[in-house]
Structure formats: C-alpha cells, structure tokens
C-alpha cells in the first residue's frame, strides 16, 4: 500500500439531534446532543488509518482545547499528525442539526484558515496518494509539484484539472462535469455516477437504515481511495466506497475512531 496524504479540514463537531428544523424565529428542542471529532479531512484520514493504511494528515488546529482533542484523536487512530499545524485562531468547529431521517444541516462557527496551511509537497513521494478533502486555489502549485513527483493526486471539486487524476464530490459540488479527468459524483440515496472521457456509469446506493448521514461522503471517498491504493479496478473502488458509506450512516458518528462501522467483509485486509 502507498502512503496517503490527506489535506483538509479538522473540526470539532457539536451534533444536535432534533425532531425537525426550526422555522425562522421558532424554537426546537434537541432530543440528544454530543460533541465529537469531525472535519472532512480528519474523517477520511481516520477511516483509511483504521483500515490499516499509512496516513499523513495535513491541516490545522488552533491552540485551544478542541485542537488538542483533535490531535489526540487522530494520533489514537494511527494517523501521522506531524503535519497538523497549530495556527493563530480557533480550531474549526461546526454545529450539526440532524433530523430523524438522518439528514444533517451544517453550521460553521469559526473563520476558515485552511488557505494558510503549508503543504509539505517535498515529502510526498512517487506512488503516494494525495487527497484534497477541501480545495483552495492557493493549493495549485503544491498539487502540481506532487503530481510531477509521481504522486497520484485527487481532490474534491473544483481541484486543478488536469493535475487531478480523479475529482470526487457530491452533485452539488460540481458546477460542470470536466471532460479531461474522471469525475466521481455522489448523489446521496441515488448512488454514484462515474464520468470519464468516453462515458458515464451509474452505481446504485446500498440500502441502509440511516440514522446520521454525517461523514457518508467521507467514508465513500476513503473506501474508494483504499481500493485505488490496492490497484483495484475503479468499479471495485466505487462499490467499496458505497459499502463504507452505507455502514457509516447507520451509526451516530461524524468519523469512526474507536469502532469503525464497517464489517470485516466490507473492509479488505491490508
């Protein structure tokens, strides 16, 4: 397996389970509340590490208690946190309003500082897999340098085409479907559509009892990247990603740290 470099948000989540979303000016009582690790970058890094991969997390935390908790959580999950930078400011934090059908509404709290991080492009070697779990235009030079060094570089939209081998994201993330790279478009309960230069292929979602949709897209990306790292066909990667996503939505979690939700059948052995 190659080394994985995950670049993206690290966040501390406050999850509120509610009977419904309140209308403007109205009140809603949370049925349940919990604080927990999150952030799209940390989610993907943790899932890959729990599966047995060597994972380097690149992102930032603030010099606060939430940052210490997130660094500890990543390290406990086996993620290399040497490139998690401590910036002046607050660790990213979000409020999740989770409805009975598992759908969640996300509210960010602190200003985003991801554009200020330093990306260790020189540390990435040939054959490594890089995933930008969030994209900022200032990342372009580093992405190009890592691709030129022989790494397989992937990203959420819009990424940098043609540097990116794959773009992975939800339908809402794509303003246009690019023609010069492979776009892997998640569509929630409808499944996933893979757009290549020649054709488009659709994969239905796996049926699941959804209790919390948080992290489903991140679990899908992790499963897909795991299969890519094992040099499996893209079709198998999409199917594995769908299985990991289906398992993830059945638990109340932003990211599986202590108990990965997928079964041994869904998680290939390293």
From TrEMBL:
Enzyme Commission number(s) of this protein: 2.7.1.15
InterPro entries the UniProt entry points to: PfkB_dom (IPR011611), Ribo/fructo_kinase (IPR002139), Ribokinase-like (IPR029056)
Pfam annotation, one family: PfkB
Entry keywords, A to Z: Kinase, Transferase
Domain (Carbohydrate kinase PfkB) ranges: 6-142, 181-254
Keyword match Kinase: yes
Any one GO MF annotation of this record: ribokinase activity
Protein's recorded name: Ribokinase
Organism: Nonomuraea gerenzanensis
Lineage of the species this protein comes from: Bacteria, Bacillati, Actinomycetota, Actinomycetes, Streptosporangiales
């Amino acid at each position: 397996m190659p080394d994985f470099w995950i670049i993206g948000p690290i966040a501390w989540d406050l999850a509120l389970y509610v009977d419904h979303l309140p209308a403007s000016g109205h009140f809603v009582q949370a049925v349940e509340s919990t604080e927990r690790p999150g952030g799209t970058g940390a989610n993907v890094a943790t899932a890959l590490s729990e599966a047995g991969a060597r994972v380097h997390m690149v992102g930032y935390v603030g010099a606060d208690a939430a940052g210490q908790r997130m660094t500890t959580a990543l390290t406990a999950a086996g993620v290399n946190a040497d490139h998690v930078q401590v910036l002046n400011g607050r660790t990213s934090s979000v409020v999740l309003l989770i409805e009975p059908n598992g759908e969640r509404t996300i509210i960010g709290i602190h200003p985003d500082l991801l554009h200020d991080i330093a990306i260790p492009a020189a540390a990435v070697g040939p054959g490594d897999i890089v995933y930008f779990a969030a994209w900022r235009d200032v990342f372009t030079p580093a992405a190009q340098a890592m691709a030129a060094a022989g790494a397989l570089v992937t990203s959420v939209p819009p990424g940098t085409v043609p540097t990116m081998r794959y773009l992975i994201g939800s339908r809402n993330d794509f303003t246009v479907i690019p023609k010069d790279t492979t776009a892997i478009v998640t569509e929630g309960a409808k499944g996933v559509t893979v757009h290549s230069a020649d054709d488009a292929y659709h994969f239905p979602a796996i049926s699941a009892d959804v209790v919390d949709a948080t992290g489903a897209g991140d679990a899908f990306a992790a499963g897909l990247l795991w299969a890519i790292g094992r040099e499996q066909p893209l079709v198998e990667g999409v199917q594995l990603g769908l299985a990991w996503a289906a398992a993830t939505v059945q638990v109340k979690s932003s990211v599986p740290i202590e108990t990965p939700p997928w079964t041994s059948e869904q998680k290939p052995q390293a």
